[in-house]
Design a protein that fits this description.
Layout lengths: L4 E2 L11 E3 L4 E2 H5 L4 E5 L4 E4 L13 H7 L1 H11 L2 H13 L4 H7 L2 E2 L5 E2 L2 H29 L1 H21 L3 H29 L2 H32 L6 H4 L1 H14 L4 H6 L3 H12 L7 H21 L11 H20 L1 H6 L1 H8 L4 H26 L1 H22 L6 H19 L2 H12 L5 H27 L11 H18 L8 H9 L13 H10 L1
Antiparallel strand pairs: 1-3, 2-4, 4-5, 6-7
Length: about 550
């Protein structure tokens, strides 16, 4: 060893069971807060640094992380199953309005052909009430999550889900169905933030993208199941539309089994000082993994939780006002971006009222069109689950926004054509392309990005605010889109695509300047990058202290 290098000190008595793997290290490296990787006598690994303990598995690839922690990844997928209900109930609500038996039961007006029809205002109120309920209960969700844990929100969601299903089955007029939409909105309000918060807190950085994307996958699977159910009902037993409501009990039963097995989030228990329970929860999630030192890895979690809480306490950040201060304001605004873009791109049009949209364009079988779109959505999301941790969130969103905007403009152009089979088929073709772009970008990034960008100590509040903002925008579009489409009102028809195309192009510009890349970043790295004020476009190029320490430890 040269004179410019410094010998490592002898081990202390507390360290006698470990062997340091780094033979020598420069003084500059020591000053740079270098990690030291150790191999304990029992074969487990741990890494420590001047910035606190580090996970010994931070340098694994995405594929290696998923395979090594199969149990944890599988638990995440099971949690994502709840999204099937959200996709199914919203899919049923938006598409069943084209069922003749449903119209006969809930219709209150006579159309131009002398037939009973749904009042466009009632359809708007149903959709609006659902999202209004989401808005209110999403704002309340952090109160229960911060006090009693993430899992309590999942129990509230499950109860609201059950009530909504029962009321849908027994409803006989549009008011009854409106009440069902109220409880359905409540269930969705607790479902989204609860699931995303839970998945974010239990996942490892390298598998987080795929795990959070599973929420979008199961959401689209629920929508696909809704389309299949309605198509079968329309073809085989059109008068028995309530069969679609009964089928939700199958989803409910599967989810209850999953919910009863889930442990509370280790991060929440750690924050509450319940360390023994937190370690038990961690063991239940991780299972048996070779070389995994539970005490050390828990110390990593504990260090980050305490560091995040302390950082926010310095600024007296314990209330809702905290998310609007300093770097947290930037994180809050960025958290809202993907959801805003989802609405701007035209989700209310394509998914909210697809059968209504198709029928107005002249498509012969609107239910079949909805089914095709949901199949493409599921296929696109499946691809993005495997690409989101390789291509990155920012890249996917920019590509997706460009594709969706062009398709929206194409809708407007088709709107200049006479209504008929040709225009209807053209709308279905463009909608299929739109769905593929959306599935590969905004559909998967939206919920996942929300969990990644927010800080640990303010995550439940940030998620709640972002989802409230999403529901507010969705409420506006859910109420106005039927009014804009309907011949009874504005009569824009397919020309509505011009509106969403312009909004999406504007959103894409905002994304380029403000949406950072979070691929593979740990919560600790995200805190550092925001604290340093790194521009969004340079996030993926910036090396953090954590990366420097990991690289030196590997050396």
């Amino acid at each position: 060893m040269t004179s410019s290098q410094t010998q490592l000190p002898y081990l202390t008595a507390d360290e006698k069971d470990t062997i340091i793997h780094v033979d020598d290290i420069t003084k500059d490296d020591l000053d740079a807060k270098v990690n030291v990787q150790e191999l304990a006598a029992d074969g487990t690994h741990h890494v420590s640094s001047a910035d606190g303990p580090q996970s010994a598995f931070g340098d694994l690839t995405t594929k290696a992380t998923v395979f090594k922690f199969k149990r944890l990844f599988s638990m995440g997928l099971l949690v994502g199953l709840a999204a099937i209900y959200m996709g199914f109930t919203l899919g049923i609500a938006s598409n069943i309005v084209a069922n003749r038996a449903f119209i006969k039961q809930f219709g209150t007006v006579i159309d131009d052909h002398g037939e009973l029809a749904l009042d466009a205002t009632h359809v708007s109120v149903w959709g609006g009430t659902n999202f209004a309920a989401q808005l209110v209960f999403q704002a309340a969700s952090p109160l229960t999550a911060d006090r009693w844990g993430v899992r309590i929100n999942l129990y509230i969601m499950t109860l609201a889900m059950l009530v909504a299903i029962v009321i849908e089955i027994v409803s006989t007029n549009w008011i009854h169905y409106l009440i069902a939409k109220l409880f359905s909105g409540m269930a969705c309000a607790y479902l989204g933030p609860g699931i995303i918060n839970y998945l974010t807190e239990i996942s490892m950085p390298k598998m987080r993208g795929a795990m959070l994307s599973s929420f979008a996958f199961f959401f689209s699977l629920g929508g696909l199941c809704a389309s299949i159910a309605l198509k079968l009902i329309a073809d085989l037993t059109p008068a028995k539309f309530r069969s679609a409501f009964y089928s939700q009990f199958a989803i409910f039963g599967i989810w209850v089994c999953v919910l009863l097995y889930l442990p509370e989030s280790p991060a929440f228990l750690c924050k509450k000082g319940k360390h023994d329970q937190a370690k038990q929860s961690l063991r239940r999630l991780i299972g048996s993994v070779e070389g995994y030192d539970f005490d050390h890895e828990y110390s990593v979690l504990q260090f980050h939780v305490e560091d995040s809480v302390a950082m926010n306490k310095k600024l007296s950040e314990s209330s809702w006002a905290a998310i609007f201060k300093g770097s947290n304001l930037r994180r809050t605004v960025i958290s809202c971006l993907p959801f805003t873009l989802q609405a701007f791109s035209g989700t209310a049009l394509i998914f909210g009222y697809s059968t209504f949209f198709f029928s107005l364009s002249g498509l012969g079988d609107a239910f079949l069109g909805s089914l095709i779109l949901n199949l493409i959505l599921l296929f696109g999301i499946t691809i993005s689950i495997f690409s989101v941790d390789y291509l990155g969130r920012r890249t996917l969103v920019l590509i997706g926004c460009a594709g969706c905007a062009l398709c929206d403009i194409a809708f407007g152009g088709i709107g200049q054509m006479p209504i008929g089979p040709t225009a209807g088929n053209a709308v279905l073709a463009v909608a299929s392309v739109w769905v593929f772009f959306y599935a590969g970008s905004l559909a998967t990034v939206g919920w996942g990005y929300l969990g990644e960008v927010s800080s640990l100590s303010l995550r439940s509040k940030t998620i709640a605010l972002a989802t409230v903002q999403q529901s507010l925008i969705s409420l506006i579009f859910q109420y106005t889109v039927p009014e804009m489409l309907s011949p009874q009102k504005a009569n824009w028809g397919v020309r509505i695509g011009y509106l969403f195309g312009g909004l999406t192009f504007l959103g894409m510009i905002v994304v380029y300047f403000f949406m950072p890349e979070t691929k593979g970043r740990s919560a600790q790295e995200m805190d550092e990058l925001y604290a340093r004020g790194i521009p969004a476009r340079k996030f993926h190029l910036t090396e953090t202290d954590y990366q420097n320490a990991q690289r030196m430890a590997s050396a």
